[in-house]
Amino acid sequence: MTGKKEELAGIVGETNVLDEPETLEAYSQDQSFSLPIKPRFVVKPKNAEEVQGVVKWANETSTPLVPVSSGPPHFNGDTVPSVPEAVIVALSGMKRIIGIDRRNRSAQIEPGVTYPQLQQELAKEGLMIPTPLLPRANKSVVASLLERQPTLIPKYLWTTLEPLRGVQVTWGNGDTLPPGGGQVDFNRIVAAAQGSMGIAIMGMVRCQILPKIHKLFFVPSSRLDNLIDFLYGVLRFRFGDQLLILNSWSLASILGSGADQIEALMEKLPPWVVLVGIGGRDTLPEESVDFQEKDISDIAQKFGLSLVPAIPGARKGQMQEAILNPSKEPYWKLGHKGGCQDIFFITTLDKTPEFVKVMYSLAEQYKYPISDIGVYIQPVHQGASCHCEFSLPYDPNNSAEVVKMKELFTKASEELLRQGAFYSRPYGIWANMAYNRDAQATIVLKKIKEIFDPNYVMNPGKLCF
Prior knowledge:
The chain is α+β, with helices and mostly antiparallel strands. The protein has helices at 3-12, 21-26, 48-61, 115-124, 141-146, 187-190, 224-236, 248-255, 259-268, 285-302, 318-323, 352-365, 399-418, 429-435, 439-452, and strands spanning 17-18, 41-43, 65-68, 87-90, 97-101, 106-109, 127-128, 164-171, 176-177, 198-206, 208-209, 213-221, 243-247, 272-280, 339-347, 374-380, 385-394.
């Protein structure tokens, strides 16, 4: 070994510096349309001290670093190097659950801890953590929360980063600061930064009491508008746990396996469904579930809807098992055609029907089948806003479909922005769209970057850097 490889081996150990062609190829691209660029090395630090050593080395040698804590497949281009000779800092080996505090309902975890790993340990203490919609089994909890992936229980979302309460970060300049404290919320600096400010080496997450009883109900409808009014009614009283809207493609893709089964399920399922999960915890769990079920059913009836335990195409208990666990393999969005592009943004619930109309209109222009568009609407921040997501499946091995998808993805991203979509997680082409509309915020962000990463070693080329 010579040069940089030898220096990195001195920090993380010889076996934790990888440069095999197949390994580098795996990190050179993802499911997005980002330009493939091979990294120079992949390093696997085992602890916070080694992470800090790698970052300090990167500053001394002017080597770009790309932090990656989740396993594949990746979708948004943030883990693909934007410049040559980058080093991937793979954090999946840092899997310690440092501590679980039952009394204060919190846990301290390293960045490689995944949702299944954490949920299993929390359950032993009678706790749980709200999850995103069917996360990958190898998805890092800390990465998911820093990326602001919405979780399924809006009444527990007090901020956009819930349930993340603090992070310990090795910044781009090599300094490590303790989590929280003081008058500055450092969480916001690293949130949605795509690893361009520093590397999170520990996260503190807020947990919830594990329900003793849990029931999942459906509220089907042929129209989205009715469901929006119903959701506002439920959110007003903070009823329920899981609360989200899926269209027939998304629901079929969660329940089905393979294109034929997914398409068959779509024929049976209603066009739109609200999923309502109700949990009963320590105090009078049965009574808690019963009164919420009755009151939510009454709200549904006001809007000509019904709260039901099953719908055609979804067996009783089948959806509950799916929604409370990680995605099956392959990842649920890839089961239909093998590839999928997502467009997601923040808006308010009342505006989502108009965004759906815009998306459907653009699909027709590009001769893309509307029935293949997945829609997922997730109330966040106590229902004050919502995450709106369109999934566009396509065959990545069909060059004509790939070209059409690139065009539709770009055009739809631009048009939805003009209609008021807020790209709070500006991946790829969304970065220029977002930052070109706010020059002052871009100036401030660049000044912050110069403070925490003065040599621009952390994931250069992302965001506005």
